Amino acid sequence: MLRDKSLIPLSRQHQHALALCVRIERASPIANSDLKAWQEEIAQQFQLEVSTHFAAEERVLFPAARRFEEFVPLVEELLADHGALRDSFTRAAENQMSAADLIALARLLSAHIRKEERLLFERLQQLMHADELAALGEELSDALATAEQACLLPTETTRLRSGK
């Protein structure tokens, strides 16, 4: 199903986060000497985009979804994911992650995004009227306005390499 334009800003940010997850997976096993660079990039991604993204979902999207009884358990699961992911992002900012922790973060973040895209967004588009989706889109746009619009570029250490 095509993504409704009201949810596209969130989906775009999901793509940025998924790209990071793919790079982490492909870089594995990550050398201890590269951990600092990866953690700096992860912390920067959280600061510039993910923190605002989570806040927008928690203030706008999740309350809208909870109006539908079928979403209550999913929203609770997504909120728990946010908590676990925030902990991981904090550990990255404090340079406390191992290579295994980076992989675990990438897998959790990827699974979380897929739940939102495939379970929440798809079904919301079926249940909400066009005017409700438009109003939701306006609220999300306002909530996401503080997110950086810069494209994060991988460093020499964190970029994809041919053959990986």
Report on this structure:
There is one protein chain. With 164 residues, this protein is mainly alpha-helical. It has one domain: nmb1532 protein domain like (Four Helix Bundle (Hemerythrin (Met), subunit A), Up-down Bundle), CATH 1.20.120. It is 72% helix and 0% strand. It has five helices and no strands. The protein has helices spanning 8-27, 35-66, 72-93, 99-127, 130-144. Helix 3 packs antiparallel against helix 4 (99-127). The longest helix is centred in the N-terminal third of the chain and has 32 residues, at 35-66. The model has no long low-confidence stretch (mean pLDDT 92).
List keywords for this structure.
mainly alpha, 5 helices, 164 residues, elongated, Four Helix Bundle (Hemerythrin (Met), subunit A), 72% helix
> What percentage of amino acids are in beta strands?
under 5%
CATH class (first level) name: Mainly Alpha
Note the gap between the termini.
31 Å
Please report the total strand number as a whole number. Answer: 0
Q: How many domains, in number, for the residues?
A: 1
Helix content: over 70%
The CATH superfamily is identified as: nmb1532 protein domain like
CATH fold descriptor: Four Helix Bundle (Hemerythrin (Met), subunit A)
SS element count, helices? 5
What's the helix-strand series? Answer: HHHHH
Secondary-structure-based class equals mainly alpha
Radius of gyration: 16 Å
Query: Architecture in CATH?
Result: Up-down Bundle
Overall pLDDT: 92
The biggest sheet, with number of strands, parallel, antiparallel or mixed sense and barrel status, is: none
Contiguous low-pLDDT stretches (5 residues minimum) are none
| Overall form | elongated
